[in-house]
Amino acid sequence: MFRLFRHTKQLCCFQMKQTLQKPLWPLPFSALVKQNSFSTDSIQSLQTISPWPKDVGILALEVYFPFQYVEQSELEKYDGVESGKYTIGLGQKQMGFCAAHEDINSLCLTVVQHLVERNNLCWDSIGRLEVGTETIIDKSKAVKTVLMQLFQDSGNTDIEGIDTTNACYGGTASLFNSADWVESSSWDGRYALVVCGDIAVYATGNARPTGGAGAVAMLVGPNAPLTLERGLRGTHMEHVYDFYKPDLASEYPMVDGQLSIQCYFQALDQCYATYRKKIESQWQKAGISKLCTLEDFQFMIFHTPFCKLVQKSFARILLNDFLASHKSDTDSGIYNGLKDFSNVKLEETYFNREVDKAFQKASHELFKQKTQPSLFLSARNGNMYTPSVYGCLTSLLAQYSAKQLAGSRIGVFSYGSGLAASMFSLKVSQNSDPGSPLEKLVSSLSDLEARLGSRKCVSPEKFSEILKVREDTHNSVDHIPHGSKDDLFPGTWYLEQVDEKHRRKYARKPV
Fold it and tell me: How large is the average pLDDT for residues 339-346?
C-alpha cells in the first residue's frame, strides 16, 4: 500500500518542470510571469490590458464512484415491492455504495489525486481549493484541510478556499466562488480546484433506493473549453424543511419526499424564469428580440436525485416555455394538442398528472436528444448529492466527440434542499481540433463506460449487511473500519484507522 506522504520528490519536481515549461492550458499572461513564480506586478500589468481573464470555466474534470454496486431490479425483489418500482418508477438501474472504510475524506482524496495525475498537473499550480459536501464527519475540521496533505511534498500551502455546505448545492457554490476568484483582483494566475463529494445513504425503507456515492473534481481557470457564461445565473433560495440532517449521530437524513419534489419544481420554475430574463436582456442589448426556450440549449442537465424526476423536470421546462409564449401553435409542432393547458398556473401543476403526462409526451424526443445522455452515470450509480449534476456533465462529455459538442450551450440546473438552487449555462469551445483543450477534456472521460463495467455487483443481502455495519460503526473511535481493499478500484484512498481521539488515518491502494 502507499502511505499518504510517500510521493517521491523527484516525481513532483519532474511534474512541476513539465507543467511550468509546457502548461496543459497556457495562462493568459504566461509571457509576463517568470517560471516558478506568480508576480503581483505582472498581474497588475495584465489588468491594465484586459480587466477579465478570457473564457473562465472548467478545464479538466474527474469523477470517482464506488467499486461495489447493487442491481435495482434485485433490490426490488429483496424489498418485496412491485417489479419496476425502482427501475421504472425511479428510472434507476444500479446503485453504487461505500463500505465503512470509505468516507468523505477518502472519496475526495481519491478524486483530487486522480485529476492531478491524469492531467500531469503540478501541485504548485493550484491556488484555490474549494470543497462542496453535505457529508459531515466533523463539526469543525474541513475536508479541504485533509486534502492539504496531498500538497505537503510540494510545499504549497498558499491555497485559498474552504468547505461549503447546503445539501446538494455546495458544489455549485464552490464552482461559482472559484470562477469569481479567477475573475477577481485576488487571482494570482494559478488554477482553482473544485471538489464535490458525498455518500448518500438512507435508512431501510422507500428512500434507500435513491442513494449513491461519488466525487467529482473540476479544474477551473481561463481559456477553458467549458466557459461559464458571464451574467447568466438564475438563483432561488428559500427556507424549507424538505430534506435535512439534524441528527449528527447518524448519516441518515430527515426527508419529506413530496415537499422536496414540490420545492425542486418550484425552484426550477423560478431559476429558469430569472435565467431567461437575463439572457433575453443580453440579446436585446445586441439587437436580438426573441424569447429564450429549450431550443436555445443544445443540452440540458439537472441535479438528479433519481432519473425519473429529471424527465419530469425537462417536461416542466417545456411547460414554462409554453406558458411564456402567447402565440403557441397548438395545432401543429411541439405544442400540438396542448391547447387545454393554456391557462394553467405553474404553482398548481406540481402534482397534476394530466399536465405531467401531456408535457412528458410532447417533450419526449427533445428529452432524448438534450438530456437523456447525461443520465448514463446517474442511472448506474445513483444520487451523489453535490457531485450529481456534474456527474451528469461527465456523462454528457463521455458520450459525444469534441466535434459534436463544439459550440453548444449546456444548461445546468443545480438544486440543494433547504433550499438553494441555480440555473446557469456552460458554453463549449468552438475548437475541437486534436490536441485542443476540448478534445483533451473529452478524451480524458472516454473510459467512463469501461470503468462502470469493471465494478463488482453485490447481492441485496450483502448490500444490506454492509450498510448495517456502516450504520453501527458510524462515528466509532479506536477501531479499524470494516471493508476489504479488494473492493476498491486501484489507486483509491481509504480510511485505515480511527484512533481514540477521532483522528483519521488514510492509505492508498496501489495503482
Answer: 93
